Amino acid sequence: MLVALLIGVFSSAGDWYWWLLLPACLTGATSTLLFSGLAPLLDRWDLPVSVFPFNTVILLYLSCTGPTNPYYPHHPATPKGALQHTNTTLNIPQLLQGVPLGVGQIYACGALWPSVLILVAVLLFSPLLCAHALLGSGAGTLAAFLSAYADIALSNLLGMAGLPACSWAATLIITLMLLLTAQNLSVYRIPIGRVTTPEQNLYSHSHWAGGNTESTDV
Which residue windows are transmembrane per the record (predicted)? Predict the structure, then answer.
């Protein structure tokens, strides 16, 4: 879904260009195969595959087509560093808006109120998941200065080839954070293959920590 969305966003062939269905299906299948290949590798460190396949496949697609492709042209990416000016003023309302927007960006949503609706849907499914999503997004917002610098650097680097940075910065930073905290938080980690709703995870972990060795839960 993410690959198909970005193919449509970057396409310069105009609206309702139905031929985009072909690369959307092919790249979607490719990302699935890449996911299957990366999962056993990252599972050694109990790390999620995250959106590594999406970032890799969309860059490969844009690299293979190019802005002047007669069938699948796309808009060239502009390096952010060339347009962005240094501003040391901290806008508190915008910073706070980054918390719900951080959740909405998972669905390529950049508006505030649709992101709030997404949070409401998550709240209905699992209150704990909603709380952790807000806490995680809040922590990510505070730690995003590092990710922002990485995003600018990658945007400048890939922009020289007319390619977007996608979400490489966020993906690399979160993977690095998981690697650095793997030892300290290992007692709280749940194997990737057994992750379910937060309520069930909490129950299973407390059951396991209580010494019930007969339980099949984590």
Answer: 16-38, 45-63, 105-126, 133-152, 158-180
Element (H, E) at 27: helix 21-42
Residue 75 CA from chain centroid, whole number: 22
State the angle between helix axes of 168-180 and 144-159 in degrees (0 to 180), rounded to the nearest 10. 140
60: number of Cβ within 10 Å: 15
Task: State the CB neighbour count (10 A cutoff) for residue 145.
Answer: 9
Residues contacting 16, CB < 8 A, separation 6+: none
Instruction: For residue 87, give the DSSP letter.
Output: -
pLDDT tens, position by position, 60-114: 999 998 888 889 998 887 655 455 454 556 678 887 888 888 888 877 787 889 9
| Two tokens, residue 32 | 């699935």
C-alpha to C-alpha distance for 97 and 100, rounded to whole angstroms: 6
Residues 6+ apart with CB under 8 A from 72: 11, 13, 19, 20, 23, 65
